[in-house]
Amino acid sequence: MRAAVDNRTALTGFPHLRQDFAASLVVFLVALPLCLGVAVASGVPAELGLVTGIVGGIVTGLMRGSSLQVSGPAAGLTVLVFEAVREYGLPVLGVIVLTTGVLQILMGVLGLGRWFRAISVSVVEGMLAGIGLVLIAGQLYAMADAEAPASGPAKLAGLPATLAESAGATASLASLALGVGTIAVLVLWKRMPKRLRAVPGPLAAVGLATLVALVFSLPVATVEVQGLLGSVQPPSPSAFGGLADLGLLATIVAFTLIASAESLFSAAAVDRLHDGPRTAYDKELVAQGTGNAVCGVLGALPMTAVIVRSAANVQAGARTKASRVLHGVWLLLFAALLPGVLGHIPLPALAGILVHSGAKLIPLRGIVSLWREHRGEALILVVTAVSIVAVSMFEGVLIGLALAVAKTAWEASHIRLEVIDKGAGPVQAYLSGNATFLRLPKILDSLEALPQDRPVELDLSGLHHLDHACRTALESWAERHSSAGTEPVRVTAP
Q: Can you give the residue ranges of the SLC26A/SulP transporter domain (predicted)?
């Protein structure tokens, strides 16, 4: 009788424990292959992806912010991490991630989290599309068991020849076939019977690829296993000396902006999926920063909130943050108790998962609809994506932001000139809107086209804004028009 009372008390204290426990298992099965795939694609030991997933679940998961959002290593930062590791080395990655976390905590404490919602959606989608393109190109080389070129354009240009060469080599062909098969399973999994779909698609795809590779003894590369503790590499004091390098500082800024924007945009998307408490953006930014600071101390990958895992968490029936904390516990137990399993996972299968994830980052349907309704925004999206592929992540995002600001400034400077000429008496000109230097040529052309031998009444009362350049130009025009022998221009001030 007493045991029954204790059980009821436990359930009362955790009324949603059953739903959260079941959801945590689903999220764990979704997160496991993604953590490994992101780590391998980033050029770091696979276990570091699990470390970030564990920290994202247990550390960030316990903190306040967004109750159902799940954090971990994300495909959106893969390209940036790979470039940073290649240029500065793995020991400096911890410094980058730790500094990124500290900056995120500061921004959250200063209340800057909500301002990330002001970033143009087209720039963010263009950023993700650019990342997706580079990710797909790079992972196709991994699927074909070939080394990818360094730059984005070189990756795209060399793909046809690489794929053609892989068709003539047994090992490359087997690797490519396994990767393509993994993608096929991911695409077709939604059409499988409901009972089968209880297993998450990424886990099923990797599991089947591993089974095929073992049964047929395929000559494909597999994950290199170092062990969880062996892969952890805290940054040494000497690694912090790189913070004096402007290039490294620019990389940290890129990490901070992209990780923060992706996490907060993901939070907004997750809020639309459930009816529970809404995200506290500043607290969520502090939580993400704390997780990244811990990951930096451990020398692991950076983390963001991940929409795939978060959506799986909500759809699996999670009610509280317990589900994401438990998913981190399951990742820890797996990495600690079953590390040998990782050594059997084929790398082309993980590459196939990343190719599929990269494709989902490219909003093809969204671009088409955006082009029909807002061509300027569609152009910003495409230019941002192409710039990331052609130049680099940081420069591409800056180009996109500059275009968004220029477009906003152009639209904000909208002005209308209405001329009323009754044939006799003064010509009446009404200016309304925002008079800025951006529209100054148009304003002057219209005013200078007015009859020179007639008096003019210029009404500026409809202007919301009149900058110094326009005011000076209008005064000069009025003097020139009055000097022709007509009556002085009458101006109604704004």
A: 17-384
Report whether 220 contacts 345 (CB < 8 A).
no
CATH code for residues 415-492: 3.30.750.24
Q: Residue 456: beta bridge partners? A: 427
Task: Give per-residue pLDDT as tens, 145-189.
Answer: 888 887 778 888 898 888 888 877 888 899 999 999 999 999 999
pLDDT higher than threshold 90 for residue 466: no
Tokens of 51: 């470390």
Does the pLDDT value for residue 357 go beyond 90? no
In the chain, which residues fall in CATH 3.30.750.24? 415-492
Give the pLDDT confidence score for residue 10 in this predicted structure: 44
Helix-, strand-, coil-residue percentages of the chain, each rounded to 5: 70, 5, 25
Number of neighbours of residue 74 by Cβ within 10 angstroms: 28
In angstroms, rounded to a whole number, what is the distance separating the alpha carbons of residues 494 and 474?
A: 13
Provide the 10 A C-beta neighbour count for residue 459. Answer: 18
Taking the C-alpha atoms of residue 420 and residue 66, their distance in angstroms, rounded to an integer, is 58
Distances (CA, A) of 317 to 100, 193, 314, 368: 32, 20, 5, 33
pTM here?
Answer: 0.74
